Amino acid sequence: MNAQLRFLGAADTVTGSRYLIDTGAARILVDCGLFQGYKVLRNRNRAPFPVPPESIDAIVLSHAHLDHSGYLPALVRDGFTGPVYTTAGTSELAAVMLPDSGYLLEEEARHAARGRWSKHPHPTPLYTVDDARRSLDRLRPVGFDEEVPLGPELTARLVPAGHILGAASVRITSAGRTAHFTGDLGRPDDPLMLPPRPFEGATTLITESTYGDRAHADVDPEPLLATVIDRVVKRAGVVLIPAFAVGRTETILLHLSRLREQGRLPEVPVYLNSPMAINVTAIYQRHRDEHRITPAEIERMYALATPVHDVDESKLLNLRGGPMIIVSASGMLTGGRILHHLAAYGPDPRNAVILTGFQAGGTRGAALLGGARSLRIFGEDVPIRAEVVNIDTMSAHADADELLSWMRAAPAAPEQVFVTHGEPAAADRLRVRITRELGWRARVPEQGERVEL
């Protein structure tokens, strides 16, 4: 492959996945994600894209999570007109998630203007709902393992990655040389999704490293959930569960419905306050070959929770009080309806916040995990006296041991490995383990760096 790879994101952080391949004859962007977390990272979303958007011939998306797809509306608005190749599942999820992202960005700008807590006199959203809807016209669903032509002697192939519905690893091939982008790699024993396909080898491997410096505890999350919920219900409290609307919410509802079936979940109301999560139910039903849950389980999961559709219903939950359970996005407390619930119930020590996934540095979730007892929400400092519990055994990301086990399936060592999409400590620790345990050449690239493929 006579091509150059440029790391435009996820090179010094766990968000903003963007990889540009330039062969001279074609420019291909693998993933088009939002930067999240620290302000210095989020500012990159506002910076001009490093190359003219109209110069990019095609985009290949690994999956629908916003740190991999959420910048697409801005790129299309600014001039990108090519096709966006991805799986059918990702295409359907993106049709829900991207307009929702635009709505939340608009809502955040309105709150900032009304509350005058923005440093900008006229705060504007990164993009709008209309921008997001227009970007959906670029989506071109393809099947797993379908050879997709991208340019002269350049093809892409998407292979199952587990993680969430539609998630794929991206294989870009030219002249017998292949670059394999893991995207977000799922777990071999995930209760919801099927395992990722074993690594078939590549000339170059670009791997994620979200949990590159740790192993998930070998603990069943259901007893932990049951214990926390029982404890909070006995003190008439409210259990807040921030959850990614796609993937994590379904896993949480699956565990809660199983606990209810076993008689281990108190008979208290469960509210699903995430319009996006409600909307993806039918998508899971249409793609049953990608996940483990049966139609009966899907039915029980959504029968368990009362869906909250409009804003007025959401506001009433803040007046209701406990005992009750609220599952709501976003999973890292970066936006959405969960922030209103946190402002209402966070100051009361009878209540609890259960964190169930990775919390990127600079997010409110990471601050809570680090022991913060006050959070800035809608321009005000809100005291957090509620119990904070972390149950990260529900993560949909492979941990360090699982990543290495997946790599060992390769028939031969890649010529080079680039460790990306992780916090600096996680990425470097995984680099060390790849070098020492597998004997492969691995390093952590820098933001904006160019390398030869």
UniProtKB/TrEMBL annotation:
Residues 15-228 form the Metallo-beta-lactamase domain. Keywords: Hydrolase. The keyword Endoplasmic reticulum does not apply. CDD domains: TTHA0252-CPSF-like_MBL-fold (cd16295). Residues 249-368 form the Beta-Casp domain. The keyword Hydrolase applies. SUPFAM superfamilies: Metallo-hydrolase/oxidoreductase. It comes from the Bacteria. PANTHER family: CLEAVAGE AND POLYADENYLATION SPECIFICITY FACTOR FAMILY MEMBER, INTEGRATOR COMPLEX SUBUNIT 11. This is MBL fold metallo-hydrolase. It comes from Agromyces soli.
